[in-house]
Design brief:
The complex is a heterodimer of chains A (about 190) and B (about 160).
Chain A: H1 3-11, H2 15-37, H3 40-57, H4 67-86, H5 109-129, H6 133-144, H7 149-156, H8 160-178
Helix pairs in contact in A: 1-2, 2-3, 2-4, 3-4, 4-7, 6-8, 7-8
Chain B: H1 3-14, H2 21-32, H3 34-50, H4 62-106, H5 115-121, H6 128-135, H7 139-152
The chains are: A mainly alpha (about 190), B mainly alpha (about 160).
Chain lengths: ~190, ~160
């Protein structure tokens, strides 16, 4: 069934139609919430609240934008509210960087690589969380979620020029913070020596 | 081209949004600038680490957990609607009371005509009714009639004054 039809049926009160919409968008909404919270349970709670909010707001959806864009807008605003209530993200210090021991000879090379990558990923995400909110949101939407510039512009109700310049600043800020942990060859420096 | 401009073009290039002459200019700059080459490598590394980890699956039974909440909220909606509107209704009601009160207070009211005025308008002698009182023979009867007539009068101004 077409998405427009599903939305119309859901607006008329069909739970089955809304269930289909939830099934379609749940992974994306969950993934977005997870990008911001880094916690599966919190992300799941947020996703539930976002769909609840969307369901109650359905009568006010007039189809001026796509349903997905509208839902992402609700998601971003809800997540921002959640993060504001939760308080500012902690400043990332070197103490927060997970310890990765490279000297463990017993581990296989593959397992070691996986651990290193995971540690680096965690580090990068912590740095993202330490960015000011407007930069954190835009980096998450573009570089973590991979949304198109046009979609970001519609979701955040920003001009394409503002999206471009804000993203540029955010990425630059992030690279400068991460520079000590990124190698010139495109890999990453060791996080700590065991 | 300076390094700041090159960085801007570099990010556009990594997004796949750079072509034509700017791309050639950037390539030339990167060839000559080790700092920008290093920045390029760092950005590539950063982007690969930032990409969402698709392996993180949502918690199971999402819809089964969501559906009862939707039902519960939907049942609450009329209640919330009434609560919201009842709060708004109070100032509206007060404004209406003030408006209607003000209208009644300031609106010109039709003046009630006195008995004499009515008789004059009807071209009748206003003294003809009271004349009977004064025509009474006995002074006691005259006084009693005057007393009862004064009690019948609506307007206190028309009562006989001592």
């Amino acid at each position: 069934m077409e998405e427009e039809q599903l939305v119309r049926l859901a607006q008329e009160g069909s739970p089955a139609a809304f269930e289909e919409l939830v099934t379609k968008y749940q992974p994306k909404v969950f993934s977005m919430a997870l990008s911001f919270t880094r916690n599966r349970e919190a992300a799941d709670d947020l996703a539930q609240e976002i769909f609840l909010k969307a369901y109650l707001a359905l009568p006010r959806f007039h189809g001026k934008s796509e349903f997905g864009t509208w839902l992402y807008r609700i998601s971003v605003n809800h997540i921002k509210d959640f993060l504001r209530k939760k308080g500012r993200a902690k400043e990332v210090s070197l103490d927060d960087v997970p310890e990765v021991s490279f000297s463990d000879r017993e581990q296989t090379e593959k397992a070691q690589e996986e651990r290193e990558t995971e540690a680096r990923r965690t580090l990068v995400q912590r740095f993202v969380q330490s960015l000011p909110e407007k930069y954190r949101v835009i980096v998450t939407l573009r570089d973590i979620q991979g949304l198109a510039y046009e979609d970001i512009s519609r979701i955040l109700r920003l001009s394409p020029g503002t999206v471009d310049s804000r993203l540029h600043r955010a990425r630059r800020m992030l690279r400068l913070k991460l520079a000590p942990y990124l190698t010139a060859e495109g890999g990453a420096n060791e996080l700590s020596q065991g | 081209m300076n390094c700041l401009k090159a960085e801007k073009l570099l990010l556009r290039s990594l997004d796949g949004r750079l072509d034509g002459r700017p791309r050639d200019l950037l390539a030339k700059h990167l060839e000559a600038c080790p700092a920008c080459r290093k920045a390029e490598a760092q950005y590539r590394s950063m982007f690969s680490l930032l990409k969402a980890d698709g392996a993180t699956a949502p918690l199971p039974r999402f819809w089964e957990r969501l559906e009862p909440r939707l039902r519960e909220e939907t049942e609450l909606v009329p209640l919330l609607f009434w609560e919201r509107w009842s709060l708004r209704a109070i100032p509206v009601f007060l404004a209406l009371v003030i408006l209607i009160g003000g209208f009644h207070f300031f609106a010109p009211q039709a003046r009630e005509l006195s008995q004499s005025a009515t008789l004059l308008i009807e071209n009748r002698d206003p003294l003809s009714e009271t004349q009977a009182l004064f025509d009474a023979d006995k002074p006691d009867t005259q006084t009693m009639m005057l007393l009862f007539a004064s009690l019948d009068e609506k307007s206190p101004a028309r009562r006989p004054t001592p």
